[in-house]
From TrEMBL:
Superkingdom assignment: Bacteria
NCBIfam families in the cross-refs: PRK06523.1
Similarity comment: Belongs to the short-chain dehydrogenases/reductases (SDR) family.
Organism in which the protein naturally occurs: Mucilaginibacter myungsuensis
SUPFAM superfamilies: NAD(P)-binding Rossmann-fold domains
Keywords, ordered alphabetically: Oxidoreductase
Cited InterPro entries: NAD(P)-bd_dom_sf, SDR_fam
Gene3D superfamilies named in the record: NAD(P)-binding Rossmann-like Domain
One of the record's GO molecular function terms: oxidoreductase activity, acting on the CH-OH group of donors, NAD or NADP as acceptor
Annotated PANTHER family: 3-OXOACYL-[ACYL-CARRIER-PROTEIN] REDUCTASE, SHORT-CHAIN DEHYDROGENASES/REDUCTASES FAMILY MEMBER
Protein name in the entry: SDR family oxidoreductase
Length: 265
């Protein structure tokens, strides 16, 4: 096998877990890691619409502590642990309208889904990485974590901001033991979740989907590249960070937003 072919399969022998890996960015990450030779475990709340035998699937709602424990136990029994952990699970399914539209339950749910699911899964799977003195953890956050839109992402943004801080702290703790931890913060991305989000907002505002899409672009100050990201573009960044090519990168938060973010990061 040529050096070029080996580089294309540089995750051979690695076990990777991708949460929320059946749709959107998670699905694209799963495909990219598989193409690089990794053995991939995927979790999601529901079975994928189409059976895919290229990865091992575990149905789990990771916003619940006992479901996280179930996933960790199955992975330990079947694979002995993971080398790569992609905490992609997250959702912005909370009411828009600002502080008065959000009750305690909405805030608890935002934190469970967007922060504590990752915290618990890291806590369950990191010890095996520490034993081997190697491993990579990626937290999929959002530009919303530093650029909140009060009308529609208040609880989600607060939870993602907390995830960013936690991720940096974990990187500092785990780095001396050979574990790299990074964050990837996508901006506007063309996914099923984004389509549903815009459809709901358009319905609430009484305007078309296209009009709401333009309003969102305007609200975030525009995107210099003039379009949403494709999930595969974020997946390529994630692959780079978990591959040997990213071996000296830890504690970073990478924004992939088409130039949207309005300040120097």
């Amino acid at each position: 096998m040529s050096d070029q072919q080996l580089q294309g399969r540089d995750l051979e022998g690695k076990i990777a877990l991708v949460t929320g890996g059946t749709k959107g960015i998670g699905k694209a990450i799963t495909a990219r890691l598989l193409s690089a030779g990794a053995t991939v475990v995927v979790t999601a709340r529901n079975e994928p619409e189409e059976v895919d035998n290229s990865y091992h699937f575990i149905a789990a709602d990771l916003s619940k502590a006992d479901e996280v424990a179930k996933v960790a136990t199955e992975i330990s029994n079947k694979f002995g642990g993971v080398d790569i952990l992609i905490n992609n699970m997250g959702a912005n399914t909370f009411p828009g309208g600002g502080f008065s539209a959000l009750n305690d339950e909405h805030w608890y749910q935002a934190l469970e889904v967007n922060l504590l699911s990752s915290v618990r899964l890291d806590r369950a799977l990191l010890p095996k990485m520490l034993e081997k003195k190697s491993g990579v953890i990626i937290h999929i956050s959002s530009t919303s974590g530093q650029f909140p839109i009060w009308e529609s992402t208040m609880a989600y943004s607060a939870a993602k901001s907390a995830l960013n801080t936690y991720s940096k702290s974990l990187a500092d703790e785990a780095g001396p033991h050979g574990i790299r931890v990074n964050t990837v913060s996508p901006g506007l991305t063309k996914t099923e979740a984004m389509s549903s989000f815009l459809t709901d907002l358009a319905g609430q505002a009484g305007i078309t989907f296209e009009e709401m899409t333009q309003k969102l672009f305007d609200r975030v100050g525009g995107v210099p590249l003039g379009r949403m990201a494709e999930p595969e573009e974020t997946a390529e960044l994630v692959y780079f960070l978990v591959s040997p090519k990213g071996s000296y990168i830890t504690g970073a938060n990478y924004f992939i937003d088409g130039g949207n973010f309005p300040v120097v990061k």
